[in-house]
Structure formats: C-alpha cells, structure tokens
Amino acid sequence: MPNTAIKAIITIAVLLAAVAAAAGIIMSRPMPEQLTVSETTSAIRAMTVVKESLRLKIRSEGTVTPKTQTNVIPEIKGRVTWISPNLVVGGYFQAGDLLVTIDAADYEARTGLAQAQLLRAEAELEHKRFELQRLQTLIKDNLVSQSNLENAARAHKIAKANVIESKINLAQAERDLSRTKITAPFEGMVRSESIDIGQFVQQGTPIASIYASDAVEVRLPIVNAQLAYLDPANLQRGELDPATAPMIRLTARYAGTSFVWRGQLARTEGEIDAQSRMITAVARVRQDNQSPDVPPLQVGAFVAAEIEGQYLDDIVRLPRAALRPNSQVLIIDGDNRLRFRAVNVLRLENDFVLIDSGLESGEVVNLSPIQTVVDGMRVSLTFEPTADRG
Q1: In this predicted model, what pLDDT tens digit does every residue of 24-48 receive, in sequence order?
Q2: What are phi and psi of 36, to 5 degrees?
Q3: Are strands 188-193 and 208-212 parallel, antiparallel or unpaired?
Q4: Which of 331, 341, 342, 343 has its CA nearest to residue 377?
Q5: What is the 3 state secondary structure string of the chain?
Q6: Which residues of the chain have pLDDT under 70?
C-alpha cells in the first residue's frame, strides 16, 4: 500500500477519534438549571366609575355695558341758564332730577300770547253762538232770510275752529315752556357731557350721554358647538322669560378684591359673527339683586362668565389624566389587567373630562400616566377618591 494512502487513513482515524471524544465530553456534562421568568406587576392609581347627573356650564368673557343708555337732547333752542352739579362724567342722579334749564323768557311770552289768543277765540265763539241762536228764533217768524241764518251758522263753525286751534297753540306753547327744564328720565349716571352755562343749544343737538344704573348687560361670545349645552328653549328669538332663563355667574376683580355677581341670560343675538364663527349671548345683571357686600358692577369692567347649561344624566366625570390618545381610557379587569376601552368624550372641562358613553358604573379606570402599555398588563391598584364635581 502506498505511503500516501496510509497517511490519509491515519489522519481520518485521528479526526474521528477527536470528534468522538468531544461528543462524549458534551453528552456527559451536567445540564444547566432552568430559570422561570416571573410576570412584572406595575403599581398604578385608579378610581371607580360613578355615573351622575350634572349641569353643563358654558364659559365666556365679556365687557359690561349699560342696559339702557340715552342721549340728553334739548327739544327747543335757547341759552343755558343752569346746569346740575351732577351733570358731570360719573355724576349720579335720580329719576326726575333737574339736569339743565334753558332761558324760558321767550317761551313764557309765547305761552301768554297763546292764552290771549284762546280768550279772544272763546269770546268770538260765544258771540257767534248767541247770534246763531237769535237768528234761529227769528227764522220761525220769517223775520230773517235763510241765507242770513246759513251765514251765521258758518261763522259759528269758524269761531269754534278758532277755539280748537287756539287750544292747540296754547298746549304747544306750554309744552315748549316745560321743555326749558330738562329732567332725568331714570336713575343713573353720566357717561359724557358737552355743555356749559351761557351756551346756546340747538334743538336736536345732544348735550350729554347718560345710562340707567338699575341693570347692566354683558355680551358673551359663545362657540357655536357649545350652544348644544343650552336648553333649546333658551335659544328662542327675543327676550327670554326671567322665570326660566339660565342663571349666569360673573366674576371680576374690583379694588383688588374678587367679587361674584349673579345674572340671567336675557337673549341670544340672532347672527353668527362672520369672522369668529361665534354667536353672542347677552347676560343681564340687576344691581339690586346682589349681595349687600357686593359693589355695583361697573360699566366697562371685564368679567368672566359661567352660564348654566342643561342637565344631563349618566355622565362619567374623570380627571384628564385618565384620557389617552384616540379617545381611549385604560380599564382594569377582574384579573387586575389593563384593557383599552374607547369612549365618547362629551367635553373637556377644566381639569376633568366628561364622558357620556363607553363606561359603566363600577368599572375601574387607570389614572396613572403610563408611558408604555401592553393590553393585558398586570397591575396593582391604589384607589383615588371619586372626582370632585368642583
């Protein structure tokens, strides 16, 4: 046998022996101990779902304006002889208070002339009445002609018309005389004035702007979608019935202190703003209906408003931390495992979320901000109290 073949057989034999030795060593080594992986449990905060009936609230802001505002306009012309010391910006007056007097001399003279004219007309009428009666007696004895009687009757009617005209002229003169004294039509305050003693004022020219102090209004812009939170009966045109109109809570700071005023929804304006796509609700506040320690609500003040909406049943109120993306929450099942649940969000309200479907009373909802969540993950619970209705 050649040497080359012998060497090849020896090499193969050595390799087979080495493989057999290695296999024996591997098969004879001790097997490693098998480890069991334990399931991780995460600690979370949770709360029990409670369905409730609650009143929705609509929030807005606005500026206080007068409910009743008017310009003081003379109905006659003349020179100003007296001005009330209260007819200044911010001045306060009562209904019927004298604000301005205008020189009355010319109007007194016109009144006197009208009275004299009336006396002449009444005397003339008395004469024409007597003359007509006399001719009516004579016509029976054929002592006067029919034409004379007709002329007397015509003269009597003319005299009667003159009396009527004189009375109208006297009434007009007396009205003009009374208009030399301009009085306040209501209790209120002065917003602006532009008059001085000795000034000649023209008929129909405004001399001051005043507003009533018994009530004020606030125009409150509301997002169109939020109108659904109001009772449909409160969306009718025109003034709302105060007996059923929603209450409105207004807050503002005055003299460094926060105050609360109570008002009512008076009406909703019938147009949607083309720029903001909002509709305007008008709140009305009566100054005499407030708490004794609350100052009058000042015109021009900027206030925050909270309008009472309609009552809804079976609403779940949860902290915002419970809401996850895509309108989902995490509930905990009977085995303390997390499960995703889709819900319908009615609205977000301050630090809470209102849910009207997707949850049932007694279910447990996660409140912890878990970053990575796997459906079915086991958790341990620490219960939080039911959400404060605030």
Answers
A1: 666 666 666 655 555 677 788 888 8
A2: -105, 120
A3: antiparallel
A4: 331
A5: CCHHHHHHHHHHHHHHHHHHHHHHHHHHCCCCCCCCCCCCCEEEEEEECCEEEEEEEEEEEEEEEECCEEEECCCCCEEEEEECCCCCCCCEECCCCEEEEECCHHHHHHHHHHHHHHHHHHHHHHHHHHHHHHHHHHHHHCCCCHHHHHHHHHHHHHHHHHHHHHHHHHHHHHHHHHCCEEECCCCEEEEEECCCCCCEECCCCCCEEEEECCEEEEEEEEEHHHHHHCCHHHHCCCCCCCCCCCEEEEEEEECCEEEEEEEEEEEEEEEECCCCCEEEEEEEEEHHHCCCCCCCCCCCCEEEEEEEEEEEEEEEEEEHHHCECCCEEEEECCCCEEEEEECEEEEEECCEEEEEECCCCCCEEECCCCCCCCCCCEEEEEECCCCCCC
A6: 1-8, 14, 16-39, 232-236, 386-390
Nearest one of 263, 295, 311 to 60, comparing CA atoms? 263
Q: Could you give phi then psi for residue 228, rounded to 5 degrees? A: -65, -20
Q: What is the pTM of this model?
A: 0.70
pLDDT of residue 38: 55
- Residues, the chain: 390
Give residue 13's identity as a one-letter amino acid code.
A
Phi/psi-derived region of residue 235, left when phi > 0, alpha when psi is between -120 and 50, beta in every other case: alpha
